[in-house]
Design brief:
Layout lengths: L1 E2 L2 E2 L5 H13 L6 E4 L2 E2 L7 E4 L2 H9 L3 E5 L2 H4 L9 E5 L4 H8 L5 H21 L2 E4 L2 H14 L4 H6 L7 E3 L28 E5 L9 H11 L6 E5 L13 H12 L7 E3 L9 H6 L3 E4 L5 H4 L4 H9 L3 E4 L3 H9 L2 E4 L4 H13 L1 H17 L2 H4 L1 H8 L9 H6 L9 H14 L3 H19 L1
Parallel strand pairs: 1-3, 2-4, 3-5, 6-7, 7-8, 8-9, 10-11, 10-13, 11-12, 13-14, 14-15
Helix pairs in contact: 4-5, 8-9, 8-14, 12-15, 14-15
Length: about 450
């Protein structure tokens, strides 16, 4: 199981998912979990370490199945040319995230980043023997991309006309064990938050596709009649140092400062909490929130922070438009509010925080929903594939034809040269020199 995310006490979504996949499969298989970024994770259930370069090639050579996620094949494109059984974990449509994440960058840079991500995903889809996604909506998205690439063909269709044996829904899950408090975390711990205050928690990072400003404005409105309301952002600094603070986080801080809320009604955990400590923060809250903009990323997203709310039985207040809206319609674990609607959000928070009967009903439904979404159930299609693992029905010439690359782009270095050439053609020589300087500094640091 390969990830480019940091494995350790403090983990973000990709690393958590990689860890849970390795843990689940280790019951029946000999599993190694490897990160190309960093690893200080101690476990007795499977091997876990940082790996790169020749060591990564040796690890793959000794494996029967390789599961990968994210951008790993950008740095290691040779993975797609192995004859191993490859499983692509595409629970996160990263090309749609790039549209938002790069919105503030120069047009040519943004376009190149999105184009490169689409090419990366197309290569993974063209080669994978099995594909995992997080929802039926995502599966429809990836089926369209597979069809455009020629992977829905007589070989794959005749093998399984549903194509579930090629691409299956394996959502993010919640731990099988109930959440148990091991220490106080927010109430009477964070200066300014008392034992009888009402705590709204924002679990996870603050990224550009989220809308923390509407939430802060709603808290500003609510605190005038409900002075004990407190908003706590759980993670402001991503555990992977390669992920910088995003524009949305800086704007949220600035707005809270301007409204005089910082340290009084709005609070931040400046780091990232330990994975095995997060339940203490969640259990110290009264409601979990997720506010976002309704755009393409939202449509195909799977908000993993909401799963943590369901795990501990928190009522949920969230913007409409994502995969959890339909689930909430059925399970009634919270309130869905329109995009950017401060008044509706303030009213929803008031209901969940101060209407005891409604809060109890939402909490009970939240806990029951979480029990349906435990990791063993979420990963059952993956376990079934691993039990019968084999190359895809169209493996061989068809896949190799789809994997043809532009000249010079068969290695990571070659791909960087191709990107540099494209930037130069667009008149972006300063960007080329900055990238060369960044690579040089990185090399000097590694050598040193």
């Amino acid at each position: 199981m390969l990830t480019t995310d940091v494995l350790g006490e403090r983990m973000a979504g990709p690393a958590i998912r990689a860890y849970q996949i390795a843990l689940d499969l280790s019951a029946d298989h000999d599993v190694t979990l490897a990160s190309t970024a960093a690893c200080d994770l101690g476990t007795h259930d499977f091997r876990c370490f940082k790996v790169n370069g020749s060591a990564l090639k040796a690890l793959v050579a000794g494996a029967d199945l390789v599961i990968f996620q994210g951008f790993i094949t950008d740095r290691h494109p040779w993975l797609l040319r192995t004859d191993k059984i490859l499983i692509a974990d595409l629970y996160d449509p990263i090309h749609l995230e790039q549209l938002e994440q790069m919105r503030a960058r120069p047009a040519a840079e943004r376009r190149n980043a999105v184009d490169a991500t689409v090419r990366l995903l197309n290569e993974q889809l063209a080669r994978a023997d099995f594909i995992m996604c997080a929802s039926e909506g995502q599966r429809t998205l990836w089926l369209g991309q597979l069809a455009a690439l020629g992977r829905i063909n007589p070989d794959t269709y005749d093998d399984d006309s549903s194509l579930r044996s090629l691409i299956a829904v394996c959502p993010f899950g919640v731990p099988s064990e109930p959440a148990r408090r091991t220490a106080p975390a927010i109430r009477d711990v964070v200066p300014g938050i008392g034992g009888d205050d009402k705590v709204i928690i924002w679990a996870g990072g603050v990224y550009n596709w989220f809308d923390p400003e509407t939430l802060i404005k709603a808290v500003d409105r609510l605190r005038k009649t409900r002075p004990k309301v407190r908003l706590f952002f759980l993670g402001m600094q991503h555990p992977n140092p390669a992920v910088p603070e995003m524009r949305a986080a800086a704007q949220a801080r600035r707005l809270a400062d301007e409204l005089g809320l910082t340290g009084v009604h709005v609070f931040y955990n400046e780091g990232w909490v330990r994975y095995d400590d997060r339940q203490n923060y969640l259990l110290d809250a009264d409601v979990g929130v997720s506010t976002h903009f309704v755009h393409l990323e939202t449509t195909f997203s799977f908000r993993t922070r909401i799963l943590d709310y369901l795990w501990v039985g928190l009522p949920v207040v969230a913007t409409v438009g994502d995969a959890f809206e339909a689930l909430n319609d059925v399970r009634q674990f919270g309130i869905a509010i329109p995009e950017c609607d401060v008044e509706a959000l303030a009213a929803a928070l008031d209901t969940v925080l101060f209407d005891t009967a409604a809060a109890g009903r939402f909490a009970a439904n939240s806990r029951a929903t979480g029990e349906m979404l435990r990791w063993p159930q979420a990963l059952s299609p993956l376990r079934e594939f691993c039990a019968r693992a084999e190359r895809a029905p169209d493996a061989g010439p068809t896949q190799q034809r789809l994997l043809r690359r532009p000249a010079g782009a068969r290695t990571a270095a070659g791909r960087r040269l191709v990107r540099a050439r494209d930037m130069a053609r667009e008149g972006r020589l300063p960007d080329v020199w900055r990238e060369i300087l960044r690579r040089f500094v990185s090399l000097v640091r590694r050598v040193g």
